[in-house]
UniProtKB/TrEMBL annotation:
Uppermost EC category: oxidoreductase
Name of protein: dTDP-4-dehydrorhamnose reductase
Family to which this protein belongs: Belongs to the dTDP-4-dehydrorhamnose reductase family.
Cofactor: Mg(2+)
High-level lineage: Bacteria, Pseudomonadati, Pseudomonadota, Gammaproteobacteria, Oceanospirillales
Catalytic activity: dTDP-beta-L-rhamnose + NADP(+) = dTDP-4-dehydro-beta-L-rhamnose + NADPH + H(+)
Cofactor: binding comment: Binds 1 Mg(2+) ion per monomer.
Amino acid sequence: MKLLILDAGHCLSLALVRLASRRGDTELVVEPGLDLTAERLAEVSPDALVVPPLTQPISAEPAMVLAHAEAVESCLAACAAAGVPLVWCVSDQLYEDGFETAIDEHVIPAPRDESLRRLITTGDRIREGYRRHLIVRLGPLFALEGGSAWLSELIERLMAGEQVRAAEDVIFCPTSVDAAAMALLGMLQQQHCGAEAWGAYHLAGTEPVSAYTFASLVRTQLETRLEGIGESVALGPIKALNHHHDQPLRRVLNCRRVLEAFGVHQKPWRLEVGRMLDEWCKARREVEA
């Protein structure tokens, strides 16, 4: 199976490259940005095109959101003309106001923000105009490297002694980028073998948590590991923010459909954080040695 991946520096793209390098059944061609011509798509002739998500679209500049939407729609036109499946990954932030219960795949986001609505328009065009698509809604991604690698940015700020401000009243399911990459390749391998299970799917980690609790756990585990290797570092503090004073905003994705269709189980984010922190400490010791 050959995949064409856009946005080479994105943490999800890097995770896909790492995973594919350990497998013998997947070939990746990676493009630096989101610009893709029909000629380039025809030249590569992939079995699917994968577009990583625009991370944190709620806080992104409107021009950036618009550019992302237009790039995805250009990819849609090229894929439809060439008969190449399109995989578009999107942030759970499109569910701007959250839900009291876990959000099922059939629930299409209806944000109030104009920029976010532009992304919904793109999703509508994909669903209405091209059957061979996967819209994969992801929880907040965390990774050790790449663009939008939340965990690496968090570690860097803590190590610098900076205060980290994180919402205490926004609940979501952090998603390991490595787990997301493994799930995506598994889904696409099954599609390549004739599964024909197109549509929207949710991918997220288990155990809903606030950004504040997530950051606090990372800080505690990082401190413990540094002490274990004989380092004493004054890590930056975590400050809780509250934006929703009436009740917490819950943005929790129900991932039942991806389990039923592809057998994909969600990975506990706590275990993934621990594994990544072990990798970070190992790399740190190797550099110092």
